[in-house]
Amino acid sequence: MATFYLSSVARVPRYLVNEYHLDWILHGVEYGVLCLLMLKTLDSFGWMQVEKAAALTIIAVGVIGALNELVQAYTPYRSPSLADGFANVVGAAVFMAGYFLLRRRSTAVAQLTDRNREL
What we know:
This protein is an all-alpha fold. It has one domain. It is built from five helices and no strands. The protein has helices at 2-9, 14-20, 22-45, 50-72, 82-118. Helix 3 (22-45) packs across helix 4 (50-72), helix 3 (22-45) crosses helix 5 and helix 4 (50-72) runs antiparallel to helix 5. The longest helix has 37 residues, at 82-118.
């Protein structure tokens, strides 16, 4: 809900969008966080492997982003953008990749710690 609310109300100053592409960065971060929250929720149910949950989550975030862009078509002072939709999915994928890298690293550290205890 917060995603739809912010997209219909919040406005980024035009110079930040044009010069620094802040709009795309904000889209990526917003949808990346949404993706991680959805993944953790799906994973907590234990219905499927975390890798399948990750793929489903990225697809779901892409659909939510597309719907959000559609809503912006009917919101005053807002306009839909294919680039924003792309930034949504890229942000979700980058955050997901970061999550799996950190997860792999923490698993490796835990295994090393367990081996050191055995010695």
